[in-house]
Amino acid sequence: MSLAAAEYGAAISQTVYTWRPVAVVLFPMAAALVAILLGIKGGRWVAHFSLGATVLTLLGVLSLYPLLQQGTLEHYFYRMMKVGLLFRVDYLGFSFALLICIAWLLAMLYAVAALERETARHLYFPFSLLTLGSCLGVVLTGDLFSLFFFFELMTLSSYFLIISRRSSEAIAAGSFTLFMGLAGGLVMLFGIIALYSAAGTVELVPLMELIGDGNAHVSFIFACLFIGFGIKALVVPLHLWIPRAYAAAPAAVNALSSGAMIKVGIYGILRLLFVLFTPTAPELGELVNFARGSGYLVMWLGLLTMVAGAVMALQQENIMKLLAYSSVSQMGYIIAGAGAGAYLFGLGETLGYGGAVLHAFNHTLFKVAFIIIAGIVYYCCGEVQLGKLGGLWRKMPLLAAFFLVSMLAIAGVPGLNGYTSKKLIQYALLGAYNQYGGLDIFIAEKVFLIGAALTLCYYLKFFQGVFGGAARDAVMQRRPPGLLYLPLCLIMPLMLLIGLAPNYFMDALLIPSAKAFSFTPDSIKYVAEFSFFSTSKLGAAFTGLLPAVLFYLLAARLGWLTRPLPRWLSIEYLLFAPLLNLAFAVLLRSGGSLDDGVNRFYYRLAAKFINICSFLSIFDKRVDCLYSSSGTRVRYLVESFRQVDDTLNEAYTATGKAARELAGRTTILDQALDKSYERAGEYARNLAKRTGELDEALDEGYTRAGNAARQLLERRDGEGPEAASVAKHHQRKSIFAGINPLEWNIRNLSFDSLLMAVMLGLVIFVLLFFARGLI
Predict the structure, then answer these.
(1) How far apart, in Å, are the Cα atoms of 659 and each of 280, 601, 652, 665, 666?
(2) pLDDT tens, residue by residue, 385-398
(3) Could you tell me which residues come within 8 angstroms of residue 768 by beta carbon, excluding any fewer than 6 positions away?
(4) Domain ranges of the chain
(5) 361 vs 4, higher pLDDT
(6) Is 81 left (phi over 0), alpha (psi -120 to 50) or beta?
(7) What are the pLDDT digits (tens) for 143-172?
C-alpha cells in the first residue's frame, strides 16, 4: 500500500448510542395512524398531512449525518428474551435512508395533486407512510432478525398501495406481488435460521470466519438470502411481479416502488456481498474464493437481468409496463456492479461497490422523473398505450423537455448523473478483465455496453410514441396543474449536480462507507480520485450512443419494436411454466399415492370400526338385559318400600292421634295440678302461719315453765331433804312418769319435715282422685 493511499485505510469506528434512528423509523408509522383517522373523518387534509410527515422524516434522516461523522449510531429497542430490534446506522444505511426519503418526498408532491379526485387517496397516503417507516427500518437495522421484521412489514403494507384503485386487475396484481414477497420472505427466513445455527449470531457484520469452510452450508445460506432480497431487487427470473404491479397501480405508487422499495432489495444484496460474506482479510484462502465466486455469479445474473429487462421493455406498448421492465434492466446495472466488486475482492472492489451505490441513487432520480411524466400523460389523456398517444410535444413542450433530459441521463450522456455511475460499473468490469483475463469477462463488458445501448432504444420508443409524430386517438382531456411539475423541477438540478460534480456525493457518502468495510485502501483511493471527464472516457460515452440510435431506427423501420417475442423466449414459458408443470405432476402423483394410501387406511379403519361396533352392540344388549332385570328388582323393592311407608304413615297417624289426646289430657292434668299447687300453697301458707303462732306460744310456755322450774329448784335447795322427798312423791304420781320433758317434746319436730309430709299427702290424694278417670 502506498503512502498516498494510507489516508484511505479503514477508519476506526466508534459507537454513538442514540435513540434518533428509532424515532426516524417510528415517526412515519405513527403519522400513518393519524392519516387513517383523517381519512375516516373526511380526508380533506390527509394529503397535506402526509406530505408534512414525509418532510419531517427527511429532516430526521438528515439529522443523523452529524452524529454519523462521530461514529456508527446504535440503539437497542424493545429487548426481550435476548431478542429485540437492533438499530445500527452506518454510511451505507444512511445513504439508502436518504435515497428512500427523497423518493418519497418526490412521489408525495406528485400524489397531492394527481390523486386529488381518485378514491385511491384514502389508501395511498396512510399506507405510504407505513411503508416509508418499514423501508427505513430495513436500512437502519443492525441484524437480520430486525431487518426481516421490517422487510415483511414493507411487503404487507405495499400490498395496500398496489390495490389502492380497488379494481380487479389491481387486486390480482397485489395478490401476486404479496405472494411472491411472502415466498421470498420465507426463503430468507430459512437462510437467517441457518446462519444463526452456524454462526450463533445474525448481526450485520462479517460472519464468514464464524460460518467456517463448509461451502455447502455457506452456499445454502447465501442462496436463501439472495433469493429473498432478489425478489425485491427484480433479479431475473424473480421479477415477474413488477410488470403486473406497474400496470395496475397509480403512478404515485409506481414511483415509490421503483424509486425506493426495490432499492431495499439492492441494499440487502450489498450487505450480503460486502459485509456478511466478505472475509476480513484477503489471506483467508477458501473464504476469499467463495466471496469471489459468489461475486462472479451475481455479476452474470446482473448482466442477464440488464439485457432481459431491456429486451422486454422494447416489446411493450403500455408505457407503465415499459417503465417496469426498464426498472428490471436498471437493477441489472446495479447488481452487475455489485457482483463485479465482490469478484474483485482485495483487488479493486470499491469500483463495483461505488458504481452500484451511486447508480441506485441516480436511478431513483431519473426513474421517478419518468414515472411522474407517464403519470402526467395519463392524468391529461387517460391513456397509457403508445399506439393511441403521440404529438404531445406540441401541447406539453415542458414535459417533453423534462423527458429528454431524463432520457439522456439514463443513457449515460456526460454531464448528467447516469454517466458517472455507469462509468464506475463499466470500469469495474474492465478491472475484472485486467485482473483475471478470460473471454467470459471480456464478453461481460460487451454485454454491459449492449444493455446500455438498448436502454436508449426503448426510451426513444417511449418518446416517439408519446411526444413525437402526429396526434392519434387520445386527446388531452384536462391541463395538468402546476404542482405536478414541481417534483420534476427538483429532480433536474439534482441530476445535473451529480453529473457535473459527482465527487461531492462520493466524498460525503460513498468513500466513508467504503472505509468502514474491508476494502483495500488502494481501491478506495482509486475511486476517490477517479477522473470522470477525461478525453478517453468522454469520447467512449458519446461513441456508444451512435450505435444505439442507429439500431433503434433500423428496428423501428423493420417493425421489430412492435413484433412480440416468441412465447418460448418468455421467462414464464422457459422457467416458471415447466417448474409449475413439474410441481403439479409431482403433486398429482404424490397426491394419487397419498389418496390410495388414505383409502386403504380408511378401509382398514372401517373394518376395525365394524368389529368394535359389533362388540359394542353385544355389550349394549347385555347391558340392556342387566338394566331390565335390575329394573324389575328395583320396582319390587320400591313397591315393598311403598307398602312399608304406607304402614308407617298409618302408624304415624294413629300415634299422632293418641299423642294429641294424651297431650290434651296432660294439659288438663297440668291445669288441675296447677290449681292444686295453688290451693296447697295457700294451705301451706296458712299452716305455716299458724305453726309460727304455735311455735311462739310454745316458746312462751317453755319460758314460763323454765322460770317455774328454776323457782322450784331454788325452793328445793332451800328446804333440804324434806323438799326432796316431797319432790320424789310428786314425781311418782305424775302422769308423765319416765318421760323427760327436756328430751322428748314437739319442738324436736322441724317445720320442713312437717311441710313435706303435708305435700306428700296432697300429691297422693290428687293421684288417687284422677286415677279413677283413667281406670
Answers:
(1) 113, 79, 10, 10, 10
(2) 888 888 888 888 99
(3) none
(4) 15-565, 566-619
(5) 361
(6) left
(7) 999 999 999 999 999 999 998 888 888 899
